[in-house]
Amino acid sequence: MAKEKEDSSLKQIIAVCKRRGFVYPGSEIYGGLSNTFDYGPYGIEVLNNLKRLWWEYFVHRREDVVGIDSSLMLNPTVWQASGHVSNFSDPLIDCKSCKTRLRVDQFLDEKMGANFSVGKSLAEMQEALHKEKFPCPNCGSLDSFTEARQFNLMFKTSYGASEKESFDVYLRPETAQGIFINFKNVYTTCRQKIPFGIAQIGKSFRNEIMARQFVFRTREFEQMEMEFFCEPGTQKEWFKTWVDYCMMWLTDILGIQKNNLKLRDHAKEELSFYSEATSDIEYKFPFGWGELWGIASRTDYDLSQHEKFSGQDLKYIDQTNNKKYIPYVIEPALGLNRLFLAIISDAYEEEKLEDGEMRTVLRFAPRVAPIKIAVFPLMKKDGLGEKAKEIYHNLMQHWNAEYDEGGAIGKRYRRQDEIGTPFCVTVDYDTLQDNTVTIRERDSMKQERIFISQLKTYFMDKIV
Ligand code: GAP
């Protein structure tokens, strides 16, 4: 088969997401709310599959990891202890003419070359701006930027119903701190012994200066984070273990192509203040390589800070040798929505068929695909519709399936290709005679004929 892998640009991916009910612009009927997105019926299925697979491989299949679900709003002191109040900010400038707001570090990296801003202070970035006199990318004004300043990314809201008693809290900018503040609860109630991890999935909020690139960087997003607590001195080994495990999950379980993934170690001057080593798993997004998964060796920073600010003893006691210490932490932190973008970019293909026609196909691994099986009657009439419905109702007890009886069969196949459905089952006149159906496989488009009684075993084998 003649096949042409076309450049899967972000525009095409956004279009298929909208057209096929994966992702819609947020608040669309009111003119939208910039950089917010709503996930449609197929999008939510993919997100749920990704969350389920993450939980399965990072919690259920690990004897050394348990899960929690902490509050989204935490005592404000948590964010002082963690350093977010003083350090969780990005440097910004505004254009005095058109009021466009820019992240100085990203702007300079674009103009001066990747990583120009790494390790540079606010004053150094300011100096570079003054020297180069770049025009505003929006209105073209020269030398019209305000002084660079830090902008804290946490969203503030008022907690409490009465004005007198209410106070400011932050929407969490990461799920990690909810884990740290529950470390003692978990280790004392769940018989966990170090080394062990605590995992959490949930929403985080960051008032990003330049939210952009579809769902890559948004102000509301979901994270899947795990804090793995280990004995000081063992962190290097655990760091490597978790980097390898995360990479294995992306390639072997989700089926992401290896050549679209790479590991990037952070240079010393790039490390966050709490980290002694960080590696990013990067994905080759349609707009270039970008961070997908950050894996950090966070030392004992967070627990030490929470011990200091809360006044509680957060040390771990090793009963076997009576050692008492604050554990070190390895943190694989993944953004669900960014993973969604990687998965859909990886799956997206425009294929030229033998007859010269083009088809858009999402080559999801069956375990990630939103719909696993579509069932069609060749025609609605002559009892074919009833038979197809019967098969559909049986299959839907085991897999997320869809029934479609509208339009030409070729068009129905194309629609399922664009949704990424790995298998279509067609009921025709022969079915009524011999109880066989046609199964059509999405990627090869090959068709085979099997008995209805074999369908369950057939799919059990193929959809895991
Ligand atoms: N607890 C550590 C932490 O949150 P991070 O590198 O700031 O580390 C982890 O975030 C992951 O969360 C990133 O690798 C990315 O996948 C995702 N993420 C971060 N900010 C995001 C945003 N504004 N929109 C979408 N995903 C984001």
Could you name the key traits of this structure?
alpha+beta; binds glycyl-adenosine-5'-phosphate; 15 helices; disordered N terminus; 464 residues; Rossmann fold; BirA Bifunctional Protein, domain 2; five-stranded mixed β-sheet; Rubrerythrin, domain 2
Walk me through what this model shows:
This protein has 3 domains: 2-83 and 155-345, Bira Bifunctional Protein, Domain 2 (BirA Bifunctional Protein, domain 2, 2-Layer Sandwich); 89-152, Rubrerythrin, domain 2, CATH 2.20.28; 371-462, Rossmann fold, CATH 3.40.50.800. It has 15 helices and 23 strands. The protein has helices at 10-19, 41-60, 77-81, 84-87, 104-112, 122-132, 176-180, 183-189, 235-253, 301-310, 336-347, 384-395, 409-419, 429-434, 455-462; strands at residues 23-25, 37-39, 65-67, 89-94, 101-103, 149-152, 156-159, 167-170, 196-205, 220-230, 261-265, 277-285, 288-299, 316-318, 323-325, 328-335, 348-352, 358-362, 373-377, 401-403, 423-427, 436-441, 447-451. The protein has a 7-stranded mixed β-sheet with strand order 3-9-10-16-13-12-11. Strands 20-19-21-22-23 form a 5-stranded mixed β-sheet, with helices on both faces. The protein has 464 residues and is of the alpha+beta class. 33% of the residues are buried. Helix content is 32%, strand content 27%. The protein binds glycyl-adenosine-5'-phosphate (GAP). Glycyl-adenosine-5'-phosphate binds at residues 174, 176, 206, 208, 217-218, 221, 223, 225, 291-294, 331, 333-335, 337-338.
